[in-house]
Amino acid sequence: MVAGPTSTGPGKERLRLWIRLLRASRTIEAELRERLKKEFDTTLPRFDVMAALYRSPEGMLMSDLSRFLLVSNGNVTGIVDRLVSEGLVTRARRNGDRRTSMVRLTEEGAKSFAAIAAAHEGWVGELLGTVSEDEARRLTGMLKSFRSNWEGRE
Amino acid sequence: MVAGPTSTGPGKERLRLWIRLLRASRTIEAELRERLKKEFDTTLPRFDVMAALYRSPEGMLMSDLSRFLLVSNGNVTGIVDRLVSEGLVTRARRNGDRRTSMVRLTEEGAKSFAAIAAAHEGWVGELLGTVSEDEARRLTGMLKSFRSNWEGRE
DNA sequence: TTATGAAACTTCAAGCTTGAAATAATCTTC
DNA sequence: GAAGATTATTTCAAGCTTGAAGTTTCATAA
């Protein structure tokens, strides 16, 4: 997946693009993961879940989290379990539907996330420092249109 | 990591870009993983290792693979172990340095990979279909320059 | 109301991933 | 040539990830 095209032909440019995309995101992701571990003793998946919850003070269902973060249901269960055991989020039983529970950041969780997110934004700025703000905007536009064209198919 | 910026400010555009980049690669990666599983009963990491080996008929050391694929040494050990037990690659002891061994595709491995790679290239072409060849080239250029500026630091 | 089906989660096995510790072989330097 | 450092790799524990199977709860329609 990270190796170059093994042939020439029509799809070649797109394959190159995909490999570049993947290498870039893997490189950045690895660096962020390492810093999260070293500086805050946390992980990327925990950070992702907390970021989602931070933007939804009213809370999210497990399935909301799963859909939003593009990961499986069972996966979210495990991550939330760990965050709960660390006192960073809570699962609140709901009166309406007893199958579900609202997941929310605790006060400590929100405070903790705010600090991590500030550092995180700085890191991303640093790691993408060679991309100008303007170029960043254009790239984002391309990727956005790709996503919105593609998602929701099947 | 997949959620939006939680603040405004200088690094914001780069953070947006990073989130788009990550969502795009995760979406595509998930789709490719699923198809590899369904159509060829294999996985992305196995495919990655085989792709690297396919381009190096003389073989690669474990550490070459690790460096090239951007994953840890211990990780490669496990994946190669599984490929060996499936008869797709071999570990050849070397006379020169008995710490290392050359990893190579078997004949069956090369045949198998060629078939998977053809399908894979088609999938990528399909999944990135909304990006024109020309746009793909430009995007690739941007990502390439980003990578080469950034890698090799520290 | 009571089956029947759908929805929201959890559990589980298998595999991927890292970073740290352990092994083994090679290199360096005195 | 032996001690100490370096290099290549494996092993291991902990956590992430998926997809499938299982559980509980809710919705619906005869």
Walkthrough of the structure:
- The structure is a homodimer of 154-residue chains.
- The first copy, chain A, has a two-stranded antiparallel sheet with strand order 1-2.
- Chain A has helices spanning 12-40, 44-54, 62-69, 73-85, 107-127, 133-150, and strands at residues 89-93, 101-105.
- Chain A has six helices and two strands, in the order ααααββαα.
- Chain A starts with 11 loop residues before the first helix and ends with a helix.
- In chain A, 65% of the residues lie in helices and 6% in strands.
- In chain A, strand 1 (89-93) and strand 2 form a beta hairpin.
- With 154 residues, chain A is mostly helical.
- In chain A, helix 3 crosses helix 4.
- Chains A and B meet through helix 1, helix 2, helix 5 and helix 6 of A and helix 1, helix 2, helix 5 and helix 6 of B.
- Chain A binds a DNA duplex (30 and 30 nucleotides) through helix 1 and helix 4.
- Chains A, B: Residues 14-148 form the HTH marR-type domain.
- Chains A, B: Keywords: DNA-binding, Transcription, Transcription regulation.
- Chains A, B: This is MarR family transcriptional regulator.
Provide mean pLDDT of chain A, rounded. Answer: 88
Strand numbers in spatial order across the main sheet of chain A: 1-2
Largest sheet of chain A: 2 strands, antiparallel
Helix-and-strand structural type of chain A? mainly alpha
Number of strands of chain A: 2
Based on Cα principal axes, name the global outline of chain A: globular
Tally of individual helices of chain A: 6
Assembly of the depicted chains: homodimer
Q: How much strand content do the residues of chain A show?
A: 5-15%
Radius of gyration of chain A: 19 Å
Low-pLDDT residue spans of chain A? none
From the N-terminal CA to the C-terminal CA of chain A, the straight-line distance is: 23 Å
Order of helices and strands of chain A: HHHHEEHH
Q: How much helicity do the residues of chain A have?
A: 55-70%
Largest interface: A-B, 66 and 66 residues
Domain HTH marR-type (chains A, B): 14-148
Pfam families (chains A, B): MarR_2
Keywords (chains A, B): DNA-binding, Transcription, Transcription regulation
Protein name (chains A, B): MarR family transcriptional regulator
